[in-house]
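So, can you check these tokens?
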Amino acid sequence: METSIKARVSEELKREAAEVLHDCGLNVSTAIRLFLEQVVKSGGLPFEVRRYPSESMKTALKETAEIEASGKEQHSSLEDMFKGMNHEIEGHQKS
């Protein structure tokens, strides 16, 4: 027997989430079902919930801010990043 779940969220959140899920080949109902299955499987929330960022997250956020402030080369895609890394490696090998 199936049942329904009702949740109140903003229209904007629902729309944005639906767009992301659509890109993943899912709809909101399927995503909620997957989430609940993971809750049961893991015996709790399938992710960590914290009020404040963990120390590793604080470090990552600080490093990100430093990189952005430094003006170092930034990449628009993973492919561009890997091309840049390969170019850098090739430059070091020639030295």
Summary: The helical segments are 11-23, 28-42, 55-70, 78-94. The chain has four helices and no strands. Residues 33 and 91 are 50 Å apart (CA to CA). The chain has a mean pLDDT of 87.
